[in-house]
Design brief:
The protein is an alpha/beta fold. It folds into 2 domains: 243 residues, Alkaline Phosphatase, subunit A (3-Layer(aba) Sandwich); 140 residues, Alpha-Beta Plaits. It has 14 helices and 14 strands.
Length: 405
């Protein structure tokens, strides 16, 4: 990828609109019938767009690397995910508007189900509702306010997810996760990755021990798993680098946090309904020139192994959302995802993701329908790193001037 500084010097400001639709985790691999979720879905509008677009397969990080949501999105937004390694904790804290301070360490947590031998039965505690999560975090917060000289804040995020912030002197985020991301095994101890983090690891392990004791009789959420220790990073906003006025339409806090991190305004959707997301887009369409439009549950159904529900959601977006976006007539409509989440794997995967760019200034390739294999075989962009996507979006919206004499 050419440098952000290089792109910054080519920026031309205009009123052309870019809509970036991220179908989280939509990429898949074939089931027993030989089709992925995208290939199974009846999606004539996605097919129409694909036939009239330039397409390719993007690697969020690099070939063979399984990306988390953070790296996957940062890459789409035009930031090198290897240079900007950002833990989920900061993203979760930003997503709920927690008033972070310099030096705070944040970590995302899952409420989980543990058996009598301290083995993990369910990493997501049956996807408990947010109301239950709030009750549990209040129970813990009421009894744990400080460990040694470090203040502790625990806040609900959504469903089974929460965020914990550690505030004190001489803290470090160079810590290992306690979530093994597997069932049938015990949670891991938090270890320090350098000597400066030794104190932090001790505080984290004591916090987990005390918190687990407080909720041990709760069911199905009777344990904590922590992942993504992080402090606030230094990162230039999209407004400064790309000259955009960007807005985010997302319903899950972590994705709001990602968008806020790169300088987007967060538009209030008011629910998790995709139709409310569409309404928010329409109501704010004249105010911004870049919209990040995030669909979460394609990823959720993939993680749950629910192939059919993932297919139905793709069909619902195709039927209800895509035609209405086309009526807005954006200069660029991009459809992609931050990573693949094949339902038969029940987790993020290393597979490349489909990328479709629809614009009156695009040179359409020979791709005929929306499919990983179709795009991978016929896509005019071939296979490329996702961090180049933002340059293509800027170019096709005529926001880059000629380079050189």
């Amino acid at each position: 990828m050419i440098s952000q500084e290089f792109i910054k010097n080519l920026i031309v400001k205009n009123n052309n609109k870019i809509i970036l639709m991220v179908l989280d985790g939509v990429g898949g691999i074939p089931n027993k019938l030989g089709k992925t979720e995208i290939e199974t879905a009846y999606a004539p509008n996605f097919d129409f767009i694909t036939r009239n677009s330039i397409t390719g397969i993007a690697d969020p990080v690099s070939m063979g690397i399984t990306p988390g949501s953070g790296p996957g999105h940062l890459s789409i937004f035009g930031y090198d995910p290897i240079k900007y390694i950002i833990g989920r904790g900061i993203l979760a804290a930003l997503g709920i508007d927690f008033p972070l301070k310099q030096g705070d360490i944040a970590v995302r947590g899952n409420f989980a189900t543990l058996d009598s031998a301290n083995k993990i039965l369910d990493r997501r505690a049956g996807r408990i509702p947010t109301e239950h999560c709030k009750k549990l975090t209040e129970m813990i917060q009421n009894k744990i306010k400080k460990i040694y000289d470090t203040e502790i804040f625990i806040e609900p995020v959504m469903d089974y997810r929460f965020v914990t912030i550690f505030r004190g002197a001489d803290l470090s985020d160079k810590l290992t996760d306690t979530d093994p991301q597997a069932t049938g095994v015990a949670p891991l101890k938090c270890n320090f990755l350098d000597a400066k983090a030794k104190k932090s690891a001790k505080i984290v392990n004591e916090f987990i021990e005390k918190a687990n004791s407080i909720i041990k009789d709760q069911h199905p959420a009777n344990g904590l798993l922590l992942r993504g220790f992080s402090s606030y990073p230094e990162i230039k906003p999209m407004t400064e680098i790309y000259g955009l006025k960007p807005a985010a339409i997302a319903t899950y806090p972590m994705y709001k946090g990602l968008a806020k991190l790169v300088g987007m305004d967060i538009l209030d959707v008011g629910s998790t309904d995709i139709m409310d997301e569409l309404k928010t887009l329409k109501e704010n369409y004249d105010k911004y020139d870049f919209f990040y439009f995030h669909i979460k549950k394609t990823d959720t159904y993939g993680e749950d192994g629910n192939f059919d529900a993932k297919v139905r959601l793709i069909e619902e977006v195709d039927e209800k959302i895509v035609p209405e976006i086309l009526k807005l007539n954006p200069t660029v409509l991009t459809i992609t995802c931050d990573h693949s989440t094949p339902a038969i794997m029940k987790q993020h995967s290393f597979h490349g993701v489909p990328f479709v760019l629809f614009s009156p200034y695009a040179r359409p390739d020979r791709t005929e329908y929306f499919s990983e294999r179709e795009i991978g075989t016929k896509g005019g962009l071939g296979r490329f790193e996702a961090k180049n996507e933002i340059v293509l979006m800027l170019a096709h919206s005529l926001k880059l001037k000629k380079f050189g004499a």
